[in-house]
Amino acid sequence: MTQTPPDDCIACHMPKRNVAVISHSALTNHRIPARPDEPLPEATPSDQTGLVLVNQAPDSKASVPEITLLRAYSELASRQAEYRQHYLTLLDHLGQVQPTYPFIQAALGHKALAEGKNEEALAHLSKGLALGDATVYEDMAKALSNVGRGDEALDYLKRAVETDPFNAVLLKTLTLQYINLKRYTEARQAMARYVELFPEDSFMRKLLTRVIN
Q1: Phi, psi (5° rounding) for residue 8?
Q2: pLDDT digits (tens, 9 = 90+) for 165-180
């Protein structure tokens, strides 16, 4: 049986109020008004970036730095196709005008790897290692494996796992690399570590049992 709640909220001891307006604010260029009678702020133009710089002063001429835009596009491109061309165009531009940035080099390396240009990818990724990012280490490992340098690839996979120790995909990739190199003792250890962290993975649990037995 349901009961109608009293006018006063027992749980929080605060009286209920009638709220006239709650404005949608997620992923938009306006904010929730403080009072029901407060007008909505004017829309902020997004220019040609496809993004909106929020909380910008009306008379401000500030713009988002290109490296910041690149980072934003890199996050959005994999989820929304409309941003991918923005990302690629800006990446090519920054690769020419700001080539020393590790993030740009890492991004160029990732792009080259996806295109099957392994040597080019390695040249860029080696300059992006300064980021200390697990994704860069993983990309280095993939490129090295592709050119037959499996032992070196293993070193970068281990660095990737050290940087992101709770990444299930990285741990599986590390295990597979040990197996490919016929380093079975280390493969079992990596598999045991994986099962310890992710016991819900029944396939890996069964595989570990077979390996031990």
Answers
A1: -100, 135
A2: 999 999 999 999 999 9
